[in-house]
């Protein structure tokens, strides 16, 4: 009998199906790997298992009985625990306090806490995980590896039968990874099942018994890891065929617009060098956290960097703040539209002039007529669906919000457009419209740089593709190269060589 | 669509309706309320809070707060007192100039503390500033109350327009000036680039920064403007009471102003609030005070009622933003 079984689980969000008839089976005492591209639905799956989301369709069967979790507490009561990528550690509290954070022991007939006992138990459980540490010390004084062990200790202490680990090694050093692997194996020996979500194939091969591959919210395969190799896993992950939803146009490549040389930022970017031309779309591919956004935040002046040179129109450029970057003709559409792109409480028209307000003045006051005209032009040109430009931008759909952000940048008359995940969370129709806007820009001789985690989009729209991994550029592929396909890009993004 | 518009109008007009309701209740409760002179009294009592509320409004729009407003206004008054008593300056022009410079400097300093010293939230820095200013106010006039200001200084706070012999007390000049300032504010906040930027910095500082708006400069301006308005308020206080009393620095000017702004639709979350809403909020508070006095309620009860109004206003604020967030979620579906 399997420990946990998902059958035909479907979870929808406005405009997207995050999980589609997903199935998953975890046996008792196995280490089960789960992989998939960015946005394949892994996070949603974890949240269904831990009771954060309730699926619309499908069943969860635990040890032969159908269960349904209304909230994380119910999932925990059934023995399901999750160690998230972002740890839930209160750094200023002791290790013991963190472990007992929601189940502190009280003395009999007294409101006071049984600290002696708790310290003892905390020490014991940490010891069983191979950590002989002082549990009375603040958690924040220990490194990430031990903080993660504290999270695992919490799971062990509720007698978890299934521990989900979401990219547990992403912030650990080599030694800590080795220790984690040892701990995971010892948990398995105790009969605890582990669902191990990772971006690193070598870890899966080393650790897992079986592996499940997801793509587009669907189950692709579940196999013994011994039956798989690097290539078969990657092709299972990408497996999509390119359809014709990409309205790619041919343009002539112009002069160099932007050149970056030896950009370094401690812990984020390592010697990043590339150039982008007018009249082309330069795609940036890679896994989440590969340093693509960080590269362009540094170029745009949103974050600082340690060293490196930036040239615009072949002249050295100094950019310290976003204001400098805008003045020099750079536009940066951020991936987080609501948090960084728009002022949701303000009107569409105000958001459209957010970056060019100084240009919309007539004497002391804002030139409302000019802004009206601009808003009308933007709404028509970008096909923004609104009834009135005085509407608050927070009321619009994702696609329309994105078009407002694009309008904001077009109104600055920029020459270099950096689009970070421009089609994330918007529907298919709006996606094509965003592609057409990019086409329009390169036809007008502008330079477009597109960061995207959707490989078909990268391949469908880019003239050249640069692949990044762990803050480094892994290689570049041109549109006319035979190697420009999903397999090659994925291999490079996962650390392989381009060949 | 139409019902949405209706709801919008109702939610915007709600403070005005509440004010009208309050007027009706008080008119029935006491016949001393709805007289021409009492109305003028309310306007007179609104002026100081109205000016300080205007100071508070701009910082609230940027999701900040300025707790030093009342102390700043009193310090400005006391600086005039010091110049008059210690240095013998009676030229109203110089006194008023000193008053305004003091207010501006304090505001500018608040702005610097927030932006350049990266203090976490202006609540802390302006609370500290409030205490510093209370002390300074006492210090500059050696804890004495200063009186006998020249007419040029008290003019703004004490004059009345169209005063007549048949008993009409006249329209208080300070309220007329308040309306003029509010008019300028209206144009400034709604029609100028800087005004629009203030709302944007308040609504989403990160988006504003990434859009090339220098948030630091906007914030420094906002706190300086707040200081300037406090100086005008200090001038009116001197005119109304004919004295500069340093111990008034601890009066609840700041909470009254916050209450006026929140009642008028501003939010602690920033990005929202209008000057006309603030006017209604300020009128509401002075009407409550005035009505309770006419009903012979003790000052202790007045404190309790005003306190409850503030709590109710904040409650309305959080409920409103929760409802709006919910409406957004529903609209997105």
Automatic annotation (TrEMBL), chain B:
Q: Does the keyword Transmembrane helix apply?
A: yes
What phylogenetic lineage does the species belong to?
Bacteria, Bacillati, Bacillota, Clostridia, Lachnospirales
GO cellular component, as recorded: plasma membrane
Keyword Transport tagged: yes
Q: Which PANTHER family did the record assign?
A: ABC TRANSPORTER PERMEASE PROTEIN YPHD-RELATED (PTHR32196:SF21), ABC TRANSPORTER PERMEASE PROTEIN YPHD-RELATED-RELATED (PTHR32196)
Q: One matching Pfam family, short form? A: BPD_transp_2
* Localization: Cell membrane
List UniProt keywords, sorted A-Z. Answer: Cell inner membrane, Cell membrane, Membrane, Transmembrane, Transmembrane helix, Transport
Q: Where are the transmembrane segments?
A: 54-81, 93-115, 168-188, 218-238, 258-288, 300-319
Query: What molecular functions are annotated in GO for this chain?
Result: transmembrane transporter activity
What organism does this protein naturally occur in?
Lacrimispora xylanisolvens
Q: Which domain of life is it from?
A: Bacteria
- InterPro entries, per the entry: ABC_transp_permease (IPR001851)
Annotated membrane topology? Multi-pass membrane protein
**Main localization (coarse):** membrane
Protein name (Swiss-Prot/TrEMBL): Monosaccharide ABC transporter membrane protein (CUT2 family)
């Amino acid at each position: 009998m399997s420990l946990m079984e998902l059958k035909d689980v479907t979870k929808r969000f406005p405009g997207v199906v995050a999980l589609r008839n997903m199935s998953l089976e975890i046996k008792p005492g196995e280490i089960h790997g789960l992989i998939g591209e960015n946005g394949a639905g892994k996070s949603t799956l974890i949240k269904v298992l831990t009771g954060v989301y309730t699926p619309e369709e499908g069943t969860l069967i635990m040890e032969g009985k159908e269960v349904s979790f209304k909230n994380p507490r119910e999932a925990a009561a059934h023995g399901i625990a999750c160690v998230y990528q972002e740890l839930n550690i209160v750094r200023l509290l002791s290790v013991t306090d963190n472990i007992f954070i929601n189940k502190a022991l009280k003395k009999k007939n007294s409101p006071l806490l049984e600290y002696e006992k708790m310290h003892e138990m905390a020490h014991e459980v940490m010891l069983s995980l191979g950590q002989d540490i002082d549990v009375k010390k603040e958690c924040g004084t220990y490194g990430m590896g031990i903080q993660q062990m504290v999270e695992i200790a919490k799971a062990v202490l509720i007698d978890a039968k299934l521990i989900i680990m979401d990219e547990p090694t992403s912030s650990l050093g080599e030694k800590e990874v080795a220790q984690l692997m040892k701990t995971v194996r010892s948990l398995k020996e105790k009969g605890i099942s582990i669902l191990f979500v990772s971006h690193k194939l070598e870890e899966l091969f080393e650790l897992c018994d079986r592996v499940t591959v997801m793509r587009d919210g669907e189950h692709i395969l579940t196999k013994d890891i011994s039956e798989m190799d690097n290539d078969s896993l990657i092709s299972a992950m990408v497996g999509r065929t390119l359809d014709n939803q990409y309205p790619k146009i041919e343009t002539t490549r112009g002069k160099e617009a932007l050149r970056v040389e030896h950009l370094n930022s401690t812990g984020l970017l390592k010697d990043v060098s590339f150039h982008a031309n007018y009249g082309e779309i330069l795609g940036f591919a890679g896994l989440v956290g590969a340093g693509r956004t960080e590269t362009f935040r540094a170029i745009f002046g949103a974050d600082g960097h340690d060293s490196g040179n930036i040239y615009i129109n072949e002249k050295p450029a100094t950019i310290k703040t976003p204001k400098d970057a805008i003045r020099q003709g750079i536009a940066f559409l951020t991936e987080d539209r609501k948090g960084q792109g728009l002022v949701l409480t303000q009107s569409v028209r105000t958001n459209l002039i957010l970056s060019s307000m100084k240009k919309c003045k007539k004497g002391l006051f804002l030139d409302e007529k000019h802004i009206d005209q601009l808003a009308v032009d933007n709404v028509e040109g970008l096909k923004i669906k609104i009834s009135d430009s005085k509407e608050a931008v927070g009321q619009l759909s994702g696609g329309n919000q994105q078009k407002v952000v694009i309008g904001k940048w077009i109104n600055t008359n920029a020459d270099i457009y950096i689009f970070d995940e421009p089609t994330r969370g918007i529907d298919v129709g709006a996606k094509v419209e965003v592609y057409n806007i990019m086409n329009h820009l390169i036809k007008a001789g502008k330079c477009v740089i597109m960061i995207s985690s959707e490989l078909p989009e990268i391949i469908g729209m880019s003239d050249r593709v640069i692949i990044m991994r762990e803050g480094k550029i892994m290689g570049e592929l041109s549109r006319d190269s035979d190697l420009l396909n999903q397999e090659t890009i994925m291999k490079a993004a996962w650390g392989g060589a381009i060949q | 669509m139409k019902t949405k518009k209706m709801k919008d109008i109702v939610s915007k007009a709600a403070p005005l309706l509440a004010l009208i309701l309050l007027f009706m209740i008080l008119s029935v409760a006491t016949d001393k309320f709805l007289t021409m002179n009492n109305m003028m009294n309310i306007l007179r009592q609104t002026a100081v809070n109205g000016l300080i509320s205007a100071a508070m409004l701009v910082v609230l729009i940027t999701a900040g707060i300025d707790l030093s407003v009342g102390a700043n206004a009193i310090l400005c008054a006391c600086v005039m007192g010091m110049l008059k008593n210690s240095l013998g300056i009676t030229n109203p022009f110089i006194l008023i100039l000193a008053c305004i410079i003091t207010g501006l400097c304090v505001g500018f300093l608040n702005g610097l503390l927030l932006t350049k010293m990266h203090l976490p939230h202006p609540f802390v820095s302006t609370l500290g500033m409030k205490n510093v200013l209370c002390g300074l106010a006492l210090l500059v006039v050696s804890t004495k109350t200063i009186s006998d200001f020249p007419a040029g200084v008290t003019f703004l706070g004490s004059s009345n327009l169209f005063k007549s012999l048949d008993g009409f007390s006249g329209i208080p000049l300070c309220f007329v000036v308040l309306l003029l300032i509010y008019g300028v504010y209206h144009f400034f906040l709604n029609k100028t680039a800087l005004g629009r930027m203030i709302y944007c910095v308040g609504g989403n500082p990160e988006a504003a920064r990434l859009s090339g708006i220098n948030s630091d400069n906007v914030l420094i301006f906002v706190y300086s403007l707040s200081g300037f308005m406090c100086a005008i308020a200090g001038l009116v206080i001197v005119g109304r009471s004919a004295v500069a009393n340093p111990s008034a620095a601890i009066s609840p000017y700041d909470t009254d102003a916050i209450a006026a702004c929140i009642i008028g639709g501003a939010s602690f979350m920033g990005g929202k609030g209008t000057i006309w809403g603030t006017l209604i909020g300020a009128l509401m508070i002075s009407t409550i005070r005035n009505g309770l006095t006419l009903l012979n309620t003790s000052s202790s009860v007045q404190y309790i009622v005003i306190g409850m109004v503030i709590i109710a206003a904040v409650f309305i604020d959080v409920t409103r933003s929760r409802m709006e967030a919910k409406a957004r979620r529903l609209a997105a579906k």
